[in-house]
## 1
Amino acid sequence: MAAPDVIIVGGGVIGCAIAYYLAEAGARVTILERGEVGGEASGASAGILAPLELTVEQGPLLDLCLASMPFHPSLADTLREETGIDVEYLRSGILRVALSDEDADDLHALVERQQPRDVMQWVDAEALGRLEPRLAATRGGVYSPHLHQVNAHRLTQALAQAAVARGAALRQGVAVTGFVTSGSRVTGVRTGEGRMMAGHVILAAGSWTGALGRRLGVSLPVRPMRGQMLAFADFSSPLRHILLGEDRGYLAPKANGFLFVGATVEDVGFRKNTTARGLAGLRRMAATLVPSLAYAEVASNWAGLRPGSPDDLPVLGPVPGWEGLSVASGHFRKGILLAPITGRLMAQWLTQGRTEMPLEPFSPARFAAGAR
Ligand SMILES: Cc1cc2nc3c(=O)[nH]c(=O)nc-3n(C[C@H](O)[C@H](O)[C@H](O)COP(=O)(O)OP(=O)(O)OC[C@H]3O[C@@H](n4cnc5c(N)ncnc54)[C@H](O)[C@@H]3O)c2cc1C
């Protein structure tokens, strides 16, 4: 197949990962980002490389997560060599803590039915206390030593820079406002700076993907799901592991010494503000897991809009009804984890016409009118 020339709409982690792998495959790529690379969900993310529920059921999403995870360590090394950017890959492991007997029963059951079998192990309260001395009194928990984290903003920046080093063009501050079409083919995009033509256009615009689809009469029901977070300046005796609490809350000790606390999951449209109630809930959750955090100083707080989809699966592949158009969005709480496999699959599909794992479960065709 001839190398395509591709416009990618969106410079988040997904658009930048696709650009990186496409440029590696020899495609001519332009990323159009209306703001700054990593300026939306990708820069707001906690950067944990695990399904945060630790309970993703068997199926295509778990397969995708498991396929993506092993690429991260080598990607971190390659990106450092190619760009000088350290994405702060931290081998912290994850502890999911049981604070009640009921939690402990649930977690025991989770360990019993886990697939693959070796991701989590049960640890009793005493061993948990040794792993993480500042923890509240627990009923034990689950340890996943192989689940790690990165600095999500740096990962996004590094992917963009490495894509540029491989020949991609990056245009920041350029918003796509519409499309150029010829019959049923998309042949380019309209921007504030005029028309730009391309053999193929990929919509990787995160929570704003649905609005772009509507301009072409296509249903891509990606919707924003707000996540609020805060960072503690808690440098005295830092936590060593990512801690997961109840209701999907977590504490992530980052490489720069700050402790990230996240995150709310709220369906409030495009309102990207933090709220007193949201932040108070995060502080409460943190102090329940680690009581001394009740007195810790909050260094900063922020919110981001995760691109959610109706079935919580990403939306990947060719857009029905249009040639020359595809989509990569809807990664919800897993976009950082899923960036490498998404970039690889989209690049393989465009340059080779086949992929290392099936794209069909994620096809946007599932949202087409009449689709079952
Ligand atoms: C608080 C929080 C915590 C998270 N924690 C984790 C985690 O621990 N692990 C994990 O794996 N995931 C996590 N996520 C989810 C993850 O961040 C997202 O799934 C991922 O960043 C989505 O990437 P994206 O590139 O699709 O979207 P975005 O990062 O939102 O990028 C889309 C880009 O498109 C641009 N754009 C939009 N419209 C246009 C247009 N018309 N023209 C040009 N550009 C346009 C936007 O400006 C934006 O930069 C978290 C998210 C949040 C908010």
Note: The CA atoms of residues 95 and 143 lie 5 Å apart.
## 2
Amino acid sequence: MTDQHPWQDWQRFSADQNIHQGICRIYDAIGQAITQKGPTCWASGKCCNFNAYGHLLYVTGLEIAWYVQQLPADTDVTVDLKAPCPFQIDGLCSTHDIRPLGCRVYFCQQGTQDWQQDLYEQFQQQLIELHKQHDIPYAYMEWRYGLSEALDNRFVNG
Ligand code: SF4
């Protein structure tokens, strides 16, 4: 696969402690904001079974590079662009602590969509600011597509 995105740059940036901490701070803050909203998760698995439920997840390249760096070194998954997220196991996220912003904010519970959108925009803006502060190239892409590229590039370049 060609290096269509600057994965080496994102890997280097996401290993920087300041950027690592910045990402963790944003994830902690969205976690607290969601706790205050009090949505219910029934572990239906819908959120990660994209094609079946007509829901797509978009993530920044930096977050994907960071996520891949947090995975155990021997992680060996195949990303199928038509299948659910490869990290969903028995309907649950197997990487709950490191899941990206879009995964943290999405709930299939009816009546939560308005605040989800507001929170998503607010925290996505914080991610954009993090990119600007550190002069990080910005790109936003479909999760499985980006994951596939990042994993390929991790094994080639990591
Ligand atoms: S990382 Fe976890 S929450 Fe996000 S799509 Fe994959 S299984 Fe679902």
Note: The pocket of iron/sulfur cluster is lined by residues 47-48, 57, 85, 87-88, 93, 95, 99, 103 (CB under 6 Å).
